[in-house]
Automatic annotation (TrEMBL):
<keyword id="KW-0472">Membrane</keyword>
<dbReference type="InterPro" id="IPR050400">
    <property type="entry name" value="Bact_Cytoskel_RodZ"/>
</dbReference>
<keyword id="KW-1133">Transmembrane helix</keyword>
<feature type="compositionally biased region" description="Basic residues">
    <location>
        <begin position="157"/>
        <end position="166"/>
    </location>
</feature>
<dbReference type="GO" id="GO:0003677">
    <property type="term" value="F:DNA binding"/>
</dbReference>
<protein>
    <submittedName>
        <fullName>Helix-turn-helix protein</fullName>
    </submittedName>
</protein>
<feature type="transmembrane region" description="Helical">
    <location>
        <begin position="103"/>
        <end position="124"/>
    </location>
</feature>
<keyword id="KW-0812">Transmembrane</keyword>
<feature type="compositionally biased region" description="Basic and acidic residues">
    <location>
        <begin position="80"/>
        <end position="93"/>
    </location>
</feature>
<feature type="region of interest" description="Disordered">
    <location>
        <begin position="80"/>
        <end position="99"/>
    </location>
</feature>
<dbReference type="Pfam" id="PF13413">
    <property type="entry name" value="HTH_25"/>
</dbReference>
<feature type="region of interest" description="Disordered">
    <location>
        <begin position="131"/>
        <end position="168"/>
    </location>
</feature>
<dbReference type="InterPro" id="IPR010982">
    <property type="entry name" value="Lambda_DNA-bd_dom_sf"/>
</dbReference>
<feature type="compositionally biased region" description="Low complexity">
    <location>
        <begin position="137"/>
        <end position="156"/>
    </location>
</feature>
Length: 263
């Protein structure tokens, strides 16, 4: 049979395949492929890799990988230690067998140990029941029980739910849907909008105070107050409101409304 490396090289050359093409197709580095063709087995990682690379390369070249791998095993692979160890045979050609050890004595010894440990455990348990000092020590005193009760009660009393604090200030902005007269007074009595006319679609600035009072010439307004929007009630005449944090607009008495700003 031709040499392994010679078979690989001649097949590749006959098919005009470059080494780089083999490397790209088989994912085997070119230096290992050349080592296979030159039968430089020492340059390869080991016998396992040699057989793997040889099988892959042969399949790529459409050769019979089993023949090449078997050829490598017979000619180059070293036998293992187990293969080299001869069988010891007795006279007459029969293989010597090791005598089998009986497990009977081990079972007897194990049962004896279990019996001894059980007897020691029973003796210890009986001794504890007959010892008056141990029985007195294990009984809980009423003082300890009474002390634990108030501790649990005091820890539970500390858990109280915290209520969310109510807002102390309010923000207000007024937008006109039609031309409207507006008077807006803050908590200090200052007229932040001093009897002005707001044109359709226009808005005031956003004012902040503890509370506001507003006098409106008609209901054509939308008040943005406390994060919500409110429309003035359409009563066919001027109307006034008091705006406080966390509450809905409260309608003002006529005497209070007319006294806010000079009309």
């Amino acid at each position: 049979m031709p040499e392994i490396g010679e078979t690989l090289r001649e097949t590749r050359m006959r098919r005009r395949i470059d080494m780089t093409e083999v490397e790209a197709a088989t994912k085997i580095r070119a230096k290992y492929l050349r080592a296979l063709e030159n039968e430089e087995w020492d340059l390869l990682p080991g016998p396992t890799f040699v057989k793997t690379f040889l099988r892959t390369y042969a399949e790529y070249l459409e050769l019979d990988p089993r023949l090449l791998v078997e050829e490598y095993r017979q000619r180059f692979e070293r036998p293992t230690t187990q293969d080299l160890t001869p069988f010891r045979r007795e006279r007459g050609g029969r293989q010597r067998q090791r005598p089998r050890r009986s497990i009977g004595p081990f079972i007897v010894v194990g049962l004896g140990i279990v019996i001894v440990l059980g007897a020691l455990y029973l003796l210890g348990a009986l001794g504890d029941e007959n010892d008056p000092e141990r029985n007195l020590t294990s009984t809980p005193t009423p003082t300890a029980t009474a002390t634990a009760t108030p501790a649990s009660t005091s820890s539970g009393s500390k858990k109280k739910s915290k209520k969310k604090a109510a807002p102390t200030r309010v923000s207000v902005k007024i937008t006109a849907s039609e031309r409207v007269y507006v008077c807006l007074v803050d908590a200090t009595g200052k007229a932040v909008v001093d009897g002005e006319y707001i044109e359709k679609g226009a808005s005031t600035k956003t004012f902040r105070s503890r509370y506001f009072r507003v006098n409106l010439g008609n209901s054509s307004v939308r008040m943005t107050y406390g994060g919500k929007r409110y429309s003035a009630a359409n009563i066919g005449q001027p109307i006034g409101y008091e705006l406080r944090p966390g509450k809905k607009p409260k309608r003002l008495k006529e005497s209070v409304r007319t006294g806010l700003c000079a009309s």
